Amino acid sequence: MKTTHQTLDRRTFFSLVGTSIGAIVLSNCLSSCSAPAEAVSPGPSTGGTTGGSTGLTLNLNDAANAKLKQNGGFLYKNGMIIARTKDGSFIAVSQVCTHAGVTVEFDAAGNRIHCPGHGSNFKNDGSIINGPAGSPLKAFKTTFDSTSNTLKIG
């Protein structure tokens, strides 16, 4: 019995490799154009100072949280913006824009929250100043204990 082996010349081999690489690159490019996954969006909120529970307590005497001792001080922690506003009140809101899942930033000078992705702006309670975001940021209740100098979130 005679066995036949098919051979692949160099040109055909590299042509197939190139086509395969091109298909992989194209599929990655197309998948990056799709909408973000649902899990990225924190979902709509009523704004204000009520919201989900985090169980997070920050001691403002700790060096990592010392920025919150001053009005206008803020930090990013556990996917939230935690800030002390110009008037001295504390806020905690989701750090994920409800429009496209971009990470938002606290603007202490403007006393607002800004999305650098598409220009949405939010009040400190998470409500919308201007879009394109169509729903407010999720806000969390904050409770400050001046005796122990701790801030409880949620």
TrEMBL record:
One of its GO terms (cellular component) is membrane. One of its GO terms (molecular function) is metal ion binding. InterPro entries: Rieske_2Fe-2S, Rieske_2Fe-2S_sf, Rieske_Fe-S_prot, Rieske_Fe-S_prot_C, TAT_signal. Transmembrane segments: none annotated. Residues 60-151 form the Rieske domain. The keyword 4Fe-4S does not apply. The keyword Transferase does not apply. Its cofactor is [2Fe-2S] cluster. Keywords: 2Fe-2S, Disulfide bond, Iron, Iron-sulfur, Metal-binding. PROSITE patterns: RIESKE, TAT. PANTHER family: CYTOCHROME B-C1 COMPLEX SUBUNIT RIESKE, MITOCHONDRIAL (PTHR10134). This is Rieske 2Fe-2S domain-containing protein.
